Amino acid sequence: MKKSHILVLIVIAAAIGIIVTTAGDASTYVDFEQAFAMSTSGNNKEIHVVGELKKDTQGNIIGIEEGEDRVSFSFIMIDDKGKEQKVSYNQPVPADFTRSEKVVVVGSYDDENFKASKILLKCPSKYQEEQELNV
Amino acid sequence: MHYFVGDLGHLFVITSFITSLVTAFAYYKATTVDDLGKKTEWLKNGKTGFYLHAATVLGICVTLYIIIGNHYFEYHYAYNYSDLKLPVYYLISTFWNGQEGSFMLWMFWQAILGIIVIQTNKFWEAPVMAVFATVQAFLASMILGVVIPGLELKIGSSPFILLRDAMPNAPIFAAQPEFVPKDGNGLNPLLQNYWMVIHPPTLFLGFATTLVPFSFCIAGLWLKKYRDWVRPALPWALFSGAILGLGILMGGYWAYETLNFGGYWNWDPVENAVYVPWIVLIAAIHTMITYKNSETALKASIILVISVFVLILYSTFLTRSGILGTSSVHSFTDLGLSGQLLLYLLFFLVMAIVLAVVRWKEIPSTEKEASVYSREFWIFVGALTLCLMGFQVLMPTSIPVWNKIVGFVGIQGNFAPPADQISFYSRIQLWFAVAVGILSGMGQFFWWKNVDQEKIKKELLPPALIALVLFALVITLGKVYDASYILLTLAGVFTIVANSTILISLLRSSPGLAGGAVAHIGIGMMLIGIMFSSGYSKVVSLNNTGRMISQELSKEFNRDNLFLSINEPRKMWGFEIEYLGERLEPRYHAGFIRKSDVVETGDKDAVVAKVDLTVEGKTYKAKDTVDIRGENTYFEIQLRKGENTYSLFPRAQINFEMGTGGLLASPDIYRTVSADLYTHVSSVMRPTTEEEWSKLEEVKVKLGQEFFANDYVTILESVERVLEVDDVELSSDDVAVKAKIRVQGEHGDYFAAPIFLIKNKLVGRIPDEINDLGLRLVLMNIHPETGEFTVGMRTRQKDFVVIKALEKPFINVLWIGTLVLLAGFGIAMTRRIREFRKMKEKGQEVV
Question: With an 8 Å Cβ cutoff, are A125 and B181 in contact?
């Protein structure tokens, strides 16, 4: 076998290895029900849940509770299937949190409570944004 | 309303789009036409077209700046990203706060690069500029903002759009179409940082420069001059590698100084999206250099140079199309350009692949197998390693794209990126880094020493021995015990020693060729710096009081954070550390103001001085208004060791949006030779809630008499009649007196001036507060018969701050390594430019 063939084989092996680790370590998008099922069956891998913040009929966000000393907070999130869930986060409220149109939480269930280790926000396109103007 | 300037800007955008198309066509003709006369004509057309295009691009930038600089808030761009208080340099960074502006910046750089190519390279002008102009057309289309009638298809998003067109649903515009807001929304405070003034232009210059080697490569394939494009492309590739690398590192440095995740690199998709093209660009530079010397690796060079540019387009697509929306902490706004961006990416991807495939058979390649002892072999292995390194980052970063792709065949993809990105990427990239360290040491040896099987031991033994000794020293002194870190250190030390050996021998013979050795020394230093500063970063703000900060918070928080009450020294990192109080930042000059010395006003950006103040040479009299940056609060923390004192000013931006007061902390860094002390606040007193004040306590004192208030020695210095009291109208029958009370704090005096007044025969008392000390003083009563006064006091918990501090060992090795790497690029680039000039002077620029 020529050296170049060996090299090619090594590269292919490495590439496959990379793809396998990517697939193996990739998290998944699930809803709260699936996430809960995973945690009760002992799977504590962190997953992603996509949803929205709970709003009242006027469109005001409700359910945000700040922890003592401002370094943590919890909020109520509704996933795509419509299930409500209290999510707690060990960091301060991120900027633009209340303006986000979609929220992604990365984390896992701790008993009944969903603990987020990271929160990603999707903000509305600025052209649809209904912000108040500085009059 | 200033309609003209916006219309002019829009006209410039449309003209720039059309001129780029015309230029592309003219240069295409100039490349393909055989007739020499016609060729010159087309060349002239192309050149004029491009200069015109460059002028309109400049015009776009100038008009947008006029809108921002003159605060025309009727324009969406000025309104959304600037305000009246921004200083000029931040008005400039307003430019790239919006996506449209960053496309402009990109076009601007490419226009300049295009002019340089036209000026320096006659032979390659036509085909290279044809590619350039096509790219410019795609970019101009992104900011075109034109709706094709009939199709209702909107092309591009214009930066010159009026606010009322951007927000058609805002009720105010229905009532008053001519409405112009008084002030803008302002620039994101996190971006009000000097790095954000220079980081984006550098990064976009990096993006723009990758176009040059790509264009030369395409031109080479097009003209069938397969060998000749490498020489003019190489200095540009080196320049690009340096600038893109610099841009990435500036971003990392900004994150280190401004954000509080405690590091400089987060493996966020946005960071990955520039990291991957840069790594591949470095691989491309290596294969191009190999080709220049030994006629091998030409095909690899072509593939890599094309990949770099396509990856830049891909990263633009990733970060701007909104596809990362649910996988990145950066919240991207989708301007509706995803279709256009995809088209941009696919056009060049398909064009380059088709061209390469058509020409593939004709591209010369060597049949000879490279020997294991040849330099080509080692460099090629190095380039492969770099590519795999990029691939490992690219795959997971693209997960949202994979989901979309399987979505097209009807499968619901629910893969998400790894939950813990930092450990996921670092764990694997570390091993690649080990390989890169070893290969860059070995490769350089093979390159310069022409070693063969016999000589290899003799040549490699001395540096290997020196490396081992140094390595043992570093491991012992730095207490590195983790296996993977030990290997990384070994790889880093080895490449530094091996390249230093090469550098020394080169400095004797030909210092101009030392670029590679210098750059690789830089890489070795960076590896070691990253290993220590990230791998051995440790929390030093350990709670050593034995008391919990708060029951409600996690165990980790209580363990890793230090609670500092004002003026109560604690020990940390071998220093005596003390919190001295809240500070405000003057808007228009340097320095800090004690918050206790000023009174807040209705405007968050203005305060009134209580006493005479001197801040960095600027003096304010009592009652003067001081302009401040209202969004920023600083916390002065003093470090003392022996005679030395040093003050840290970590910052917090407290966000009152909708009642949820988030705290956005930025660190302050105390730099020493061997380590950085990285400190940020993790919790502060809540100014929003009603504080709990103690019961009123009264003392009867004479003038000049000392008493205790919240344990501080306090003196009633004077009581004087005043004729004016703010906000209260006094008639001739009314009486008002103001007391001056001095409180001796641990570090200097504080003053309070409570007022006692009788208005319409009713008693009124206006208390005064000393924030830092948690003290509220009231003049309760006056007893003229005994010459005494009753002073009332209420106290609350003293001001406090909770901090977290990290030690970042040897982080300076990383920063110095970065500079060394850039210096290496600089030396190599100078050499290649000289080489190119020499050939050009001989009239051999083609060869």
Answer: no
Q: How far is CA B153 from CA B147, B148, B160, in A?
A: 5, 5, 19
Nearest to B662 among A69, A92, A120 (CB): A92
CB contact set of B369 (below 8 Å; sequence gap of 6+):
A2, A3, A4
**What burial letters (b/e) apply to B513-524, b meaning 16+ CB within 10 Å?**
ebbbbbbbbbbb
Structure tokens, B617: 């040479």
Nearest chain A residue to B801 by CA: give it: A69
pLDDT above 70 (res B488): yes
Flag whether residue A113 sits within 8 Å of chain B, measured between CB atoms: no
Please tell me the distance in Å from B329's CA to the nearest CA on chain A.
Answer: 5
Average pLDDT estimate for B1-29: 95
**CA–CA distance from B430 to each of B426, B435, B483 (Å)?**
6, 9, 12
Q: Which residue of B has its CA nearest to A2?
A: B369
Could you give the CA distance from residue B407 to residue B401 in angstroms, rounded to a whole number? 9
* B658: contact with A, CB 8 A cutoff: yes
If you count them, how many residues does chain B have?
A: 847
Alpha-carbon distance B434 to B165, whole Å?
54
CA distances from B447 to B58, B290, B451, B491, B502 (A): 45, 9, 8, 18, 10
- CA torsion through residues A127, A131, A132, A134, sign: negative
Q: Does B603 touch chain A (CB under 8 A)?
A: no
Residue B800 near chain A (CB below 8 Å): no
pLDDT on residue B336: 78
Task: Point out which residues pair with B805 in neighbouring strands.
Answer: B679
pLDDT of B663: 73
What pLDDT, on the 0 to 100 scale, is given for residue B333?
62
Q: What single DSSP character describes residue B797?
A: P
The structure's pTM equals 0.90
Question: Which secondary-structure segment (H or E) carries B812?
Answer: helix B811-841
Residue the block writes with tokens 């792709």:
B405
Judge whether B756 and B739 are in contact, CB under 8 Å: yes
Smallest CA–CA distance, residue A7 to chain B, in Å, is: 8
State CA B397 to chain mean position distance: 20
- Number of CB atoms found within 10 A of residue B432's CB: 19
Q: Helices B194-209 and B269-294 meet at what angle, rounded to 10?
A: 40
Tens of pLDDT, residue by residue over B81-98, are 888 888 888 888 888 888
Residue B232 contacts A, CB cutoff 8 Å: no
Place of tokens 């309109």: B56
CA nearest to A116 within chain B: B419
Helices B338-359, B211-222: crossing angle, 10 deg rounding: 40
| SS (HEC) of B719-788 | EEECCCECCECCCCCCEEEEEEEEEEECCEEEEECCEEEEECCEEEEECEEECCCCEEEEEEEEECCCCE
Taking CB atoms and an 8 Å cut-off, how many pairs form between chains A and B?
A: 164
ipTM: 0.84
> Residue A133: what pLDDT?
52
A38 touches B at CB < 8 Å: no
A71 touches chain B (CB under 8 A): yes
What does the alpha-carbon distance between residue A133 and residue B647 come to, in Å, rounded to a whole number?
40
**pLDDT at site B328:** 64
Write down the pLDDT at residue B658: 39
Q: Cβ contact (<8 Å) for B414 and A14?
A: no
For B350, B478, B563, B809, the CA distances from B806, given in Å and listed in that order, are: 49, 17, 15, 9
Task: Kindly list the distances between the CA atom of residue B751 and the CA atoms of B377, B715, B718, B743, in Å, as whole numbers in the listed order.
Answer: 76, 10, 12, 6
Beta bridge partners of B634: B583, B651
Phi, psi of B45 (to 5 degrees): -60, -45
